[in-house]
User: What shape does this take?
Amino acid sequence: MSKKICLMLSLMMLFSSINFRNIFAEENIVFDAAAFDAVVSGSGMEMKGPSDGKPPGPPPDMKDEKKDEFAPVIVSQPESVHYVIEGSRYAAPKFSVSAQLPDTVVSGSAVFEWFINDESVGSTEEYEVFNTEVCTSTFNAAQLLNKPCGVYRAYCKVSCYAEESEHSVNSYESVFIVCKGVKENCFVTFSDVHQTFSNISQTIGDCIVNNNGCIPSLVICSGDWVNRVHYMGDNEEFYQKTADELIYRMSLQLGGIDTVYVSGNHDNGRAAAESTIAAGLGAQANYNGVGIIYAGKDLVVIGMNYENAATVDSNSRVISTDYSAVIPDLKAALEKAKKEHYGKPVVISAHSGLHVLGIQPESAQSDTKEWSGSFEYNIDNADKVVELLNEYSENMDIIYFFGHDHSKGEREFMLLPGDTIISTSHYDDKTYSEHTLGFAYGHAGYLTDGINGKEYYSFVSMDKNSITRTMYKADGSQSELSELTVTLKRKIKETILEETVKKKASNGSSSKKAMAIKYNKTTENPTKTEVDPKGHIFSFKNLKEYDIETVFEIASQNKLIGFALSVFKHILPV
Assistant: This one.
C-alpha cells in the first residue's frame, strides 16, 4: 500500500512541475478545445492558466463552433465593397445575406435580423419557406451615412423555428470603413490570425485612430489563418477551404484595403498565391510561393510561402523543412526588384524566421542557450538565406519580417544592420553559423497568441531618409509599444527616382526619357542606349566617362552579347 501511495505522490509532483506553456506551444500539436477553459470578462478576455490547475488555451472564438442541426444554412455572406471618405456624399452601403432551412426542417419561417457593432438596428425580415428555397435579405444601412472615421461591423442573425424552439446562426462579419484618406508610404503587417478574424478589423480601427483618421496603404498578412488543422499540400479541398473561407473571411475584415497574403505552416500556399495575384497589386504572374507579391511606387514586397520550404506527409503535416529549395526563386525575385525597382525598399514577408530559437541572444528562450522549438522553427539552410540577403542588401534597403514564433513570445524581436544573427545550418545535427546583418530583421507581430491571448501588429512608415517600425497592441487601446519602435536609416543612394518623378511631372516624359535627359549628354541624334544596373541611361558616346569596372558590370548585368562586344570595341582604345 505504501508503494502505491509513493508512486501516486511522485506522479503528482511530476505533473505539478510541468510547464504547460511549453507543452502546448508547438504549432504542430492539435489542440483539444474541450480541454481548455476561458472566461470572458468585460471587454477583455481573462485566460485561466496553470495557477487554476488547467493549462492555458486559445480564446473561445478560436474553438470549433458547434453546429446546430436545426439552424439555417447561409449560402452567401454579406460584404462591403470598399471604404469611403469621411465627409464625402457616399451612398448608404448595402449588405445581403442568403440562407435556406436545413435538411432536417421541411418548412418553417426564416427570420433575418441585422446588427451593426453588435447592436440590433431594428431591421428584421421574416419569410415562410420550404427547405429547398433560398431566401435573401438585403440591408440598406442608412445608419452608416455621415459617420465619423472608424470601422463599423455589420452582420446578420438568421433564425428558424423548429420543434417549438428558435435555432440561429450568425453570418460572417463584414466591415464598413470610413476614413479621411489613405496614408502613403506605410504598411501594416501581422501574422498568426488563427481564426480570430475580428482582430483584423480591430487592428485597422487602431490604425485609423493612430494616423489621424487615415488607413494604411497596404496590409501584409503573413500566415496561419486557420487553427489546429493543416491545409498545406496539393489537397484540392484544403485549397478551396483556404481561398473560400479563410482568405475570404479576412478580406471581409479589411473593407477594401489593399492586401497581400503569405501562407504559414497551417495554410495552403497555392490559395495564398492566387489570391495575391488576383489582388492586382503587382504580383508576378507566375508567382508560385516565392516571388514579388507587391510592386508599388514606394515599396516592393517579396513573399515566401511557408510550404515552399516544407515537406509534408499525406495528412499535410510537416515532416522536414529546408530553405534550399526557396533560394533560387528568392534570388530571382531580388534580382527583379533590383533591376525593375531600384531604389525602393524591399520587404521580405515570410511566416518563419531565420534565427536559432534559444541560441540567438535576443530569442525569447535564450536563457537556456539551448535549441528550442522543433525543425518547424529552425529551418535548414536559413544561414544561406541570410548570406543571399546580405549580398543584395549592399545596394538595397531590405527588411525581413517573420511570424510563427508567437507561442515563443518573440514580439520584441528586432535586429538592425550591424547586429549579429545566429542562423540554422542543419537542425538534425544542431549546427548554425553567425553573420553580421546587412538588412533589418524582426517579428511582424501576431494577432492571436494561443498561449496567453496577447495581440500585436507592426506599423511601418517610410520616407526618403529612414524606415520606422512601431509595434502596437491590437486591443482597442491604441497602445504604442514605444520601447519596440526602431528606425532604420536608408542607405545613401543617388536620387534617380525622385528626379525622375520631378521630370515626369514637369514635362510629361517617361521615366527612361527623364533619365536620358540627366545622363545622356548627346543632343543631336542620340545613339542607342542601355540601362545600367543602377538605373542610369548608358550611352556609347559617353563610354569614356565610365571606369572599366562599371563597364564590365553593365555588360554582365545585361547579358547582351552584342552589347558586350560593343563595349570591348569601345574600351580597347581607352
